[in-house]
Amino acid sequence: MNTTYFMVQSTMIEIAKQKGALLTPTAFQAALIAEFGDVDQLCQEVRYWDLQFQPLTVMPEKRRVAYLVQGTCGHFELSYARFRQNLDQRGAPPAGKLTFTIPGPTLRSLWWCGKETASNDVLVYYPGNEWRSISDKDFEVYLISIPLADFASYSARCGMPDADPRLLQTVFMAPQSLLAQAQTVLFPLLMPAPYFDTLKLDGLVEDLIGCWLAQTGLKPRKAEPHKSKLAISKILEKIDAGETHHLNIPELCAGMGLSRRALEIAFKEKFGVGPAAFVKSWKMAQSRRLLMQADPQKISVADVMAEHGFVHVGQFATDYKRWFQELPSETLSRSPIGSL
């Protein structure tokens, strides 16, 4: 692999000469620094991103779901996130920004936009493109965003002034040296009062874009999808379409010539839970959201159960309390509509 784009120091010196810049630290302007015990609260308070997360496993009582740091330094948007629960994640990235997601030390793999990514893959979010990922129970990431309009100047520095980011792959493999550089440059996000050298941030972005451009000629291998992958895709499609009420997993497996055991193994390998638990987690999360937004004078817990295909009242109440540390009736009674 060409190593010219890793010459960070010489690039930074040249930029400093051209701009008359001084290697002085710049304060981080924090927009959000918080721990979250609830996924919905996280989605409501997060900055820059439009998120919709769903828990896939029960969160142990009194344990935090996530720790999040977000803010700006110069024209860079910087974030650090660590999640401690299996999550079905989807949303839209920052408007008008090109965002790079660098894996942290605990991230092993991630199912992202239909791809299985590895611990040395950098993910690229293009503005306006919705995404979906499913994560393991403990992973962390660093993120750095730049104005989309700045991409042309960075690509010109890398010798490809006409590159179009919309035509590039959304995942690229980074060498360990670049990942270590990124984690070192962005590590101040974990400190109480972060300061950053904006030239190092600038150099990091140039190196990330250089690595990205260097792999433009790589083509992913085209392989016939395995039956288990097709079944997983079918289940996710039905969930997205809201067709979980009559989703029959044994029938789906039989129709595709796939054993239930094979699908169970494939789901657990990718998402950490089996298909039935995955579907149930989605239905539980949707039930909670409906209860939180319902008018107690017009909608009952039984109505919400029927909406999402739950039949046994006692089992639903037990499962709900195990997931959310309160009974469904308590959630409904706290609905802001009912308090008006």
Automatic annotation (TrEMBL):
One of its GO terms (molecular function) is DNA-binding transcription factor activity. Keywords: DNA-binding, Transcription, Transcription regulation. Pfam families: HTH_18. It comes from the Bacteria. InterPro entries: AraC_XylS_family_regulators (IPR050204), HTH_AraC (IPR018060). Gene3D superfamilies: Homeodomain-like. Residues 233-334 form the HTH araC/xylS-type domain. The keyword RNA-binding does not apply. PANTHER family: HTH-TYPE DNA-BINDING TRANSCRIPTIONAL ACTIVATOR EUTR, HTH-TYPE TRANSCRIPTIONAL ACTIVATOR RHAS-RELATED. This is Transcriptional regulator EutR. It comes from Roseibium alexandrii.
